[in-house]
Amino acid sequence: MRVLMFGWEFPPHITGGLGTACFGLTKGLVKHGVEVIFVVPKAYGDESKDGFRLVNASDVVLDFSKIDTQEYLEKIQFMEIDSNLVPYLDPEEFETLVTRDQLSSKTETQSVFSKQYSFSGKYGPNLMQEVSRYALVASSIATNNTFDVIHAHDWLTYPAGIAAKKISGKPLVVHVHATEFDRSGENVNQPVYDIERHGMTEADLVITVSNLTRQIVIEKYGIAPEKVITVHNAVEPVDRPEMDGVTKHVKEKVVTFLGRVTYQKGPDYFVEAAYKILKKDSNVRFVMAGSGDLLNRMIRRVAQLKIATKFHFTGFLAGPEVDTMFAMSDVYVMPSVSEPFGISPLEAMRSNVPVVISKQSGVAEVLQHALKVDFWDIDALADAIYGILHYEGLSKMFIRYGKAEVDNLIWENAAVNILEVYNKAVIN
After folding, report:
1. Which of 30, 106, 387, 425 is the most buried (most CB within 10 A)?
2. In the chain, which residues fall in CATH 3.40.50.2000?
């Protein structure tokens, strides 16, 4: 089985769980003998390429003299839209980026039909333009490579997957890691929703990372239930003895939130729970590790509650920094409002850290040894955290059985289910 796979990011250059999931899944598939051609908009040269081929879309030269490419260009011109979509920036950053783009655009003369595109691979104001150009490059890659099935991760790559399917005639599998309803609640960005729905409609099969997400795909996007298959995410098994020597340099217990500081992740519930706990026990420190459009608001709220001496903001963490943070943590908290899956609790449990997660998360479907609360129930959230911090027997139980549980939730096992989806798509 040979797979042409499209993803928007790849470790170590990631903004969250999407790139981590793509990497883990790819490695898992390779272990089962699957050949993977993984295409990213921009490669930096330091990505791991163990057992698979990584293609940098920015290096691909398009040959528009080919008839098949010309025909597809005519079909996808409608996707070239001008949209200032910046999903992970706060309003101040957005305004700065838009201003810079307007100044630079006065001297830009590059045509959409140039033979080679340089992608940023980021989530800036030209995101929609990059998504559509990425689809053009995908048609060229599909023309010049041999494969059995196409796999497109998240909405950013759905147009590329559709382009590859149109050119090659091979089946398309789209992987829904999150939906616009997770990111924006009911105030969806219509162009993104349209791309998501078009990708799911054109796909032969749709993979969702949880049953929670599967239900959203069926109900909100009108996709036939028999076409949507859940394959839960997983985590990479690791053994890091060097983490045993990590020192946190504070005497207090440490409670950690790690993720994007956005509406979806519920950071405000974490802050309010911290306030309740600190009123009972001042011997605790809280850490919010991440960045996002609600970060400034969280900092202001911490100041208003007068808990800043016990609350720390680290900014975005990645790679070894995440491992170090978990090594210093006594409890990990994920109070997400809507979480398609949530890999970080698995990473925490892998590091012997007990976790508190919201019932509104996909990972709650597979974890038994985690405390689960409704994201909105601040009292229950505070009680769960307080219980783990103050009852040693409870903490030890979750550490012991949680580590054993997560050791079985590995990408190599998830890849078996993905391979079954590929076979089904090819047969159909």
Report:
1. 425
2. 2-234+411-427, 241-406
Q: Rounded to the nearest 5°, which phi and psi values hold at 403? A: -65, -40
* Other Cβ atoms closer than 10 A to 108: 7
Amino acid at 87: P
Residues 415, 388: Cα–Cα separation, whole Å: 34
**Superfamily grouping for domain 241-406:** Glycogen Phosphorylase B; (3.40.50.2000)
331 and 356 in contact (C-beta within 8 Å)? yes
Q: Are 257 and 288 in contact (CB under 8 A)?
A: yes
Closest to 284 measured CA to CA, from 383, 384, 390: 390
Using the structure block, give the residue that is written with the tokens 């996002």.
Answer: 292
Find the helix or strand (DSSP H, E) in which 303 lies: helix 295-304
Distance between CA 25 and CA 35 in Å, rounded?
12
Tell me the one-letter amino acid at 186. E
Dihedrals phi, psi of 352, to nearest 5 degrees: 65, 35
The pLDDT tens digits for 338-382 are 899 998 999 999 999 999 999 999 999 999 999 999 999 999 999
Phi, psi of 29 (to 5 degrees): -65, -40
Read off the pTM. 0.80
Q: Which residues contact 391 (CB under 8 A, 6 or more apart)?
A: none
Q: Specify the pLDDT at position 309.
A: 96
CATH class for the region spanning 2-234+411-427: alpha beta
Burial class (CB in 10 A: 0-12, 13-18, 19+), 408: exposed
Q: What distance in Å separates the CA atoms of residue 77 and residue 94, rounded to the nearest whole number?
A: 27
